[in-house]
């Protein structure tokens, strides 16, 4: 079971700031989405509304065709894990958190949960406030994945984990998603690390939608041009340059803008290599706005 999401003209205002600004977005079910945005761009606000942590006041959100707020069917089936550690309750033990998840989540897989706790070495008999930051993140990930919710959202929830644990998490997420397809939204600042998981990318900035595209087509919005320095310079003259690196006589220049067929033929002629742009470079370019 997978849930799609339809968002229409969604606006969220806090005193002095519009966190979400007339956002319209349709996400099909059964894909892994990357939700990218700079600090304060509205990611957590958006995910909290989709997860029915807050009521929508302007615009609409439909998950699997229904509004999620105070909708029991949906709240059991939508799982949002936030980095802020919603699971960390004074006096609560890891075992207690797992028990609650087991009761609440219709799709809970106990064996899988135990496998994840072992993998990430989470001590189950410890109070949650005594866990290290990485262990708390791992507990969040365990609850997020083992719930097998048709809509699973992880909001920076793996940020506290060290690199080997994060990579183990990416592998296990992909493996479990293939075995149990569902809609997964990952919000992250570790863009390059997670990019290979994303089927589609949603970029928001100042609460507005900047891009929603297949990851590959987004990466084709520009190119990394590599080859002899002089030829690379000639080829990229007049293009929007996102960054460059030089190593001896070889240069790599990342440009924004589609490279047409004729230009590609010229590049091949000049011995230049073209490859898609790193998602992070595009993200920086698309969100730099007035703040740069
Ligand atoms: N409870 C609140 N009261 C007032 N303003 C808020 C509240 N929550 C969020 N904001 C503001 O709304 C905007 C969006 O915040 P949000 O937490 O959704 O961004 P984010 O993209 O998740 O940021 P980050 O990447 O830093 O976690 C920010 O300007 C933030 O200061």
TrEMBL record:
Keyword terms, alphabetized: ATP-binding, Nucleotide-binding
GO MF term set: ATP binding; ATP hydrolysis activity
Presence of the UniProt keyword Cell membrane in the record: no
Keyword ATP-binding in annotation: yes
Residue ranges of domain ABC transporter in the record: 5-231
InterPro entries: AAA+_ATPase, ABC_transporter-like_ATP-bd, P-loop_NTPase
Cited PANTHER family: ABC TRANSPORTER, ATP-BINDING PROTEIN (PTHR43158:SF5), SKFA PEPTIDE EXPORT ATP-BINDING PROTEIN SKFE (PTHR43158)
Protein's UniProt name: ABC transporter
Organism: Jiangella anatolica
């Amino acid at each position: 079971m997978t849930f799609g999401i339809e968002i229409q003209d969604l606006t969220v205002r806090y005193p002095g700031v519009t966190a979400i600004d007339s956002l319209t977005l349709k996400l099909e079910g059964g894909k892994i989405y990357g939700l990218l945005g700079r600090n304060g761009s509205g990611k957590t606000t958006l995910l909290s509304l989709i997860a029915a942590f807050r009521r929508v006041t302007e615009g609409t959100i439909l998950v699997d065709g229904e509004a999620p707020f105070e909708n029991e069917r949906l709240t059991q089936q939508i799982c949002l894990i936030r980095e802020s550690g919603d699971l960390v309750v004074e006096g609560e033990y890891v075992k207690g958190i797992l028990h609650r998840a087991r009761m609440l989540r219709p799709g809970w897989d106990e064996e899988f949960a135990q496998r994840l706790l072992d993998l990430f070495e989470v001590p189950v008999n410890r109070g949650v406030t005594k866990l290290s930051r990485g262990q708390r993140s791992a507990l969040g990930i365990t609850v997020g994945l083992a719930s097998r919710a048709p809509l699973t959202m992880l909001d920076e929830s793996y940020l506290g984990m060290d690199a080997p644990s994060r990579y183990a998490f990416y592998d296990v997420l992909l493996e479990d998603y293939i075995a149990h397809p569902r809609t997964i939204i990952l919000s992250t600042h570790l863009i390059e690390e997670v990019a290979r998981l994303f089927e589609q990318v949603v970029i928001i900035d100042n609460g507005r939608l900047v891009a929603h595209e297949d990851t590959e087509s987004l990466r084709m919005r520009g190119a990394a041009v590599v080859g002899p320095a002089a030829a690379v310079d000639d080829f990229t003259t007049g293009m929007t340059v996102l960054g460059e690196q030089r190593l001896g006589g070889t240069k790599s220049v990342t440009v924004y803008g589609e490279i047409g067929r004729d230009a590609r033929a010229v590049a091949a002629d000049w011995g230049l290599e073209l490859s898609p742009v790193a998602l992070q470079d595009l993200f920086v370019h698309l969100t730099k706005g007035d703040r740069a």
